[in-house]
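Reviewer 2 asked us to include a model.

Predict the structure of this chain.
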Amino acid sequence: MINTSELYNKEAENRILGILLVNQDNIIDIITRLNTEDFFDKRNQLIFQAIRDLYDSKKEIDIVSVSEKLRFNKQLIPAGGREYISGLAIDVDMVSNYKHYCNIIIKYAKKRKLLDIFNMAEKELIGVKDIDEVITNVKSDVTNLIMNSRTCELTSLFGGVTEVLDKVNTILTSDNNCFGLSTGLKSLDLITSGLCPSKLYVLGARPAMGKSAMAQQISEYIAQDKNVLYVSLEMGIEEYTERSLLSKCGLTKEMLSRKMIGVEQAMQKMVQASEDIAKLNLYIYDKPRCTIDKVEQAILNCRQQKGSCDLIVVDYLQLMKGNDKRIIDTKDIVSQLSNDFKNVAREYKVPVLLLSQLSRALETRLDKRPILSDLRESGAIEQDADVVMFLYRQEVYTQNPTDKGKAELIVAKNREGRTGTINLIFNGSRVKFSEYDEK
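Predicted model (structure tokens):
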């Protein structure tokens, strides 16, 4: 059993309250650093909250006003009485030490919260709860404890200048026209300046529009000289490889089934395509029940084994599983995952291309071109994404021969640039998108 004296520092709590009672020069900094629950002594919690309330009301703060506030709330006796409060004001040495006292209080508050997390985990284990679920809950709670820390490192704006200057110089002095990774589609690169590190890109479409084909095409283009992690939740690696090989050969399953090509010719094409695929730095993660933790582990493995992870592609968001099993609402799970992938992009400084389903409600409209509100669980996704793109092919809905092969890539949101629609050609036999000026 842990001793109470190990759960808080009495002197630090008393000194910080004494400072607030006799000198308000640093009150804004102190109440920004500390919360009421950071204090262990219940009396000190009541006194600190009374001081905060008086400050918020723009009223004078001293022994009398604090005591009166507590008396009005019927909390003066639980707070130790006026004698205890007067004693706090007397027990003040150097006001300049307030930051040191704040850090001590915060350290002990974190210790108590961590103990609460482990005590809860112990109860869940005794109750024969699923061990993996307990581990996930502990990790989630500890992560929240870290993320809710009120201490932060501030970086001067000048800290990022050198990196930006290097990027600009590279663009102006080389054939590279992108700040990020080129997608292989020049018109898209002009709008987005490529797929940039720390950015979240969302590609949404209704079924059969070709969003997986588009993601696969971009991934394989970039994988010619960069390491790409492709999280394939809709296709296993065998299906992915089959689609890639057939696309590069210009063959379809129907052509093979109907013997529309000779064995020798087909195998020659397949061997050549296999050699091309073998050269790609493309790594598939196709395990079922994928969580953000598993994606992060795959990123770390890619970095460790290949030296870097330059692009992450997820096909697709709604097939991901949430880490926290306590969250069961689909909208909440997707919202959490969207935010998780935004954090992954920033933490690992890598672009993330996240595929997403669209609401079937758009099928009821006369104009079925997607808009931002068509994103399923759109609020969080739209907010987290730096760029939102939609893939649309009119031929999916009509039998009009003039629509055949036409596709639109709609950039509906671009946090750092313009939006617009890019007209593309879709080659069904090769499952490939190209621009009109491409041969």
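The CA atoms of residues 358 and 372 lie 9 Å apart. DSSP finds 16 helices and nine strands in the chain. We have added this to the supplementary material.
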